[in-house]
C-alpha cells in the first residue's frame, strides 16, 4: 500500500508539473490525451470488463459535445450547467439505444453499435435547424479562468482524475466483479443469480456517460463541435486506444490514449502519410502484444517474479532448497 501511494503521488506530481513545463503545443496535446482517456475508458468498460465489443462510442461522444454546445449557445446556461446537460444527454441517449443493443450478443451486438453510431451521425448531420448540419456549432469559449491553454489543462486534469477514481471504484466494486463474471462465462453468471441483461444495460449507460463527458470536455477545448465527432472514426479511436493500452487493465485506457495522441502528434509532424505509419504500429502491437502495452508490462513483471522465485530457491552451492 505504501508503494502504491508513493506511485500515485509521483504520477500526480508529474502531471501537475507538465502544466508548467510543457510549451503551448505539447500542452494542448497533453490536454487532448487527458480527454481521450475518458473515451478509452468508456470502451474498456464494455469490452475489457464486460466482453462487449462496441464500435459505437463516438455516438455518445458526439451527443455529449452537442448537448453542451446547444445548452451553451441556445439556452445560454452557465458553464457548469452546460457540462451537466451534455453528460446527461449522452447518458439518456445511451439508455435509449443501449436498451436495444444489449438484447443482442457477440457480432450482432457489435453491428448494432455501428448502426447506432452512424444513425446518430446522420441525425446530427441532417438536422440543420438544430445542429447547424455540416457547419457545426462555433464559439464555445470557456470561462476566462480556464480559457487559456494552461488553465484548461488543469481543468481537464481535475475532471479526468475524478472520473478515473470513479472508474477505479466501479471496476473494483461487487458490480464490477459481476461484469467480469459475465465476461468470462455468461451462462455461469446467470446460474449464480446475476441478471446479465440489467448489468449489461447499466454498464452500457455508464460507458455512455464517460464518453459523453469526454465530448463535453472536447467541445470547449476545440471551441466548436462538428458532426464528425459522432461518426465511425471517433468510435474507431476508442477501440484503438483501448486495445493499444490493454482494455482489461486498470491503466490500459489511460496508457493507450496517451500513446495514441502523442504518437499521432509526433508522427504527423514528419510525414503526410502518418495514418499509414500509425496503422502499422498499431498492427504490430495488436499482433505481437494482444494484451496491449499494459499486457506487455504485466507479462514482464510475471517473468521477473518467476526468475526471482527461481533464484531464491537455490542454495549457495547451486542446489535446490
From TrEMBL:
GO terms for cellular component: plasma membrane. It is found in: Cell membrane. The chain crosses the membrane at residues 6-22, 53-72, 79-100, 106-130, 151-168, 203-226, 238-262, 274-297. It is a multi-pass membrane protein. The keyword Mitochondrion does not apply. Keywords: Cell membrane, Membrane, Transmembrane, Transmembrane helix. InterPro entries: ABC_transp_permease, LivM-like. The keyword Cell membrane applies. This is Branched-chain amino acid ABC transporter permease. It comes from Desulfomonile tiedjei.
Amino acid at each position: 500500500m505504501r508503494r502504491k501511494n508513493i506511485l500515485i503521488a509521483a504520477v500526480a506530481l508529474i502531471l501537475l508539473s507538465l502544466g508548467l513545463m510543457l510549451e503551448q503545443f505539447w500542452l494542448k496535446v497533453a490536454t487532448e490525451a487527458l480527454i481521450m482517456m475518458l473515451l478509452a475508458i468508456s470502451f474498456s468498460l464494455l469490452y475489457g470488463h464486460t466482453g462487449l465489443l462496441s464500435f459505437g462510442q463516438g455516438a455518445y461522444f458526439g451527443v455529449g459535445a452537442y448537448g453542451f454546445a446547444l445548452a451553451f449557445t441556445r439556452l445560454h446556461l452557465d458553464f457548469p450547467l452546460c457540462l451537466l446537460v451534455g453528460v446527461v444527454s449522452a447518458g439518456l441517449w445511451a439508455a435509449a439505444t443501449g436498451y436495444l443493443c444489449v438484447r443482442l450478443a457477440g457480432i450482432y451486438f457489435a453491428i448494432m453499435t455501428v448502426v447506432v453510431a452512424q444513425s446518430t451521425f446522420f441525425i446530427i448531420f441532417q438536422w440543420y435547424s438544430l445542429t447547424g448540419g455540416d457547419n457545426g456549432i462555433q464559439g464555445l469559449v470557456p470561462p476566462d479562468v480556464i480559457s487559456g491553454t494552461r488553465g484548461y489543462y488543469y481543468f481537464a486534469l481535475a475532471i479526468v482524475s475524478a472520473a478515473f477514481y470513479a472508474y477505479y471504484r466501479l471496476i473494483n466494486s461487487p458490480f464490477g466483479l459481476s461484469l467480469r463474471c459475465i465476461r468470462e462465462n455468461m451462462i455461469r453468471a446467470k446460474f449464480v443469480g446475476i441478471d446479465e441483461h440489467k448489468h449489461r444495460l447499466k454498464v452500457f449507460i455508464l460507458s455512455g456517460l464517460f464518453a459523453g463527458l469526454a465530448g463535453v470536455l472536447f467541445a470547449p477545448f476545440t471551441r466548436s463541435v462538428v458532426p464528425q465527432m459522432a461518426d465511425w472514426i471517433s468510435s474507431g479511436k476508442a477501440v484503438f486506444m483501448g486495445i493499444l493500452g490493454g482494455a482489461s487493465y486498470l491503466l490500459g485506457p489511460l496508457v493507450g490514449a496517451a500513446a495514441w495522441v502523442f504518437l499521432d502528434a509526433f508522427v504527423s509532424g514528419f510525414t503526410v502519410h502518418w495514418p499509414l505509419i500509425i496503422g502499422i504500429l498499431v498492427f504490430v502491437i495488436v499482433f505481437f502484444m494482444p494484451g496491449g502495452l499494459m499486457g506487455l508490462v504485466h507479462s514482464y513483471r510475471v517473468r521477473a517474479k518467476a526468475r526471482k522465485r527461481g533464484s531464491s530457491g537455490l542454495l549457495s552451492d547451486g542446489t535446490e532448497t
